[in-house]
Amino acid sequence: MPSSGPAQPPSPPGTAKRGRPPAPISPDAGPSHRAWLEPVRSTLFTSGLTLDDLVDRSGYSKTRISELLRGNGYYPAWEITFSVTRALGVPTQPLRRLWTAAAREARKGNDWIRHCIQQVAHDGDAPPLPYRAFTETMQPAYSEYARAFLLTDQRTRFVVHETFDILWLSWGEAAASANLNRYAWQLFRSRVMLRTPRYPDGQPDLRAAVFSTCEIHDNNPGHLVALTELIDLFDALTCLPDDQMDVAVLQHLCGLSSVQIPDVLGMPPAIVRAVDHHARATVEVLLNAPTPE
After folding, report:
1. What helix, strand, coil percent values describe the chain, rounded to 5?
2. How far is it, in rounded angstroms, from Cα 143 to Cα 127?
3. Nearest alpha carbon to residue 91 among 55, 39, 17, 33
4. Element (H, E) at 44
5. pLDDT tens track for 206-258
6. How far apart are the C-alpha atoms of 261 and 281, rounded to whole Å?
7. How far is it, in rounded angstroms, from Cα 99 to Cα 122?
8. How far is Cα of residue 253 from the mean position of the Cα atoms in its chain?
9. Residue 137, SS3?
């Protein structure tokens, strides 16, 4: 009997068939929960595996796996999380750290977390050497940028380490991207902005960063004038488009050189110079704009 439509060409060798995307993530899933759930779901989608495949490989029911992949219901124990993600080939070490942070976000106690982890005797593999080299290179600049927005060392370390753990989970995709540095920067920036204090209109609030500058720490008669001017300057920086703000923050708040910034942002040096030029011009216009009466 003739076919009702044209035959589908076979997939190229080595190309995984994409599976059907899981149902949307529950709105109740917090940012730390999504930090590991989103890359896990992406891995499932690109793997071509189905929920039935995960049932066979993990030993858990389709209902429970579906709830885990949606972030629905109770926060999942580490045992089922490990079993499902192990079936997908997700690295254990970064996932466990992200899972632990999300468990605390879900108000799970330390005893519950420790008991869950003790049920699984598996430490996972060491990180890939290119990943280690990349994160060691980027950590100083990433830390300076995060500190400008998040202020405390604790928050800075958390966001930088969270970013690197997500990057490890997604390393195959990141390494295969056209621009690894850009891929990683956009991931990192999104994690910083997720936790940055904001004005009611959603604009990032850098006012607290003013007090960490040398102009304010210097005890001179004009420090109140400097304080007002710096607050205006920092507010102007956060009104810039993303790339312009990033270049300005890295150069003027973090002290990175013009040679370092293109590599950190994953942008050509000529583009960074143009972005910096536009940023300076825009800030000057914003600072000189008449104050509404």
Report:
1. 65, 0, 35
2. 20
3. 39
4. helix 31-47
5. 777 666 554 444 444 444 445 567 777 888 888 899 999 999 999 988 889 99
6. 19
7. 15
8. 21
9. helix
C-alpha separations of 45 from 125, 225, 264 in Å: 23, 55, 30
Answer for the pair 35, 162: CB distance below 8 angstroms, yes or no: yes
Count of helix runs (H) and strand runs (E) in the chain: 15, 0
Burial class (CB in 10 A: 0-12, 13-18, 19+), 190: exposed
β-bridge mates for residue 198, sequence order: 204
Q: What's the sign of the alpha-carbon dihedral 69, 124, 155, 261?
A: negative
Is residue 246 within 8 Å of residue 186, measured between CB atoms? Answer: no
Number of Cβ atoms within 10 Å of the Cβ of 267: 21
- Distance, CA of 185 to CA of 180 (rounded, Å): 9
Please name the helix (run of DSSP H) or strand (run of DSSP E) that holds residue 167, with its range, or none: helix 153-169
Instruction: Please state, in angstroms and rounded to a whole number, the distance separating the CA atoms of residues 91 and 170.
Output: 10
Q: Could you tell me if 65 and 55 are in contact, meaning their C-beta atoms sit under 8 angstroms apart? A: yes
Residue whose entry in the numeric block shows the structure tokens 């102009």: 215
Half-sphere exposure of residue 229: CA atoms within 13 angstroms, side-chain side: 10
Instruction: Find where tokens 């280690």 sit.
Output: 132
Amino acid 217: pLDDT = 43
Lowest mean pLDDT segment, chosen from 27-36, 145-154, 173-182: 145-154
Instruction: Give the whole-angstrom CA distance, residue 242 versus residue 20.
Output: 33
DSSP secondary structure code for residue 74 in this structure: S
125-153 pLDDT, tens digit per residue, is 899 999 999 999 999 999 999 999 998 89
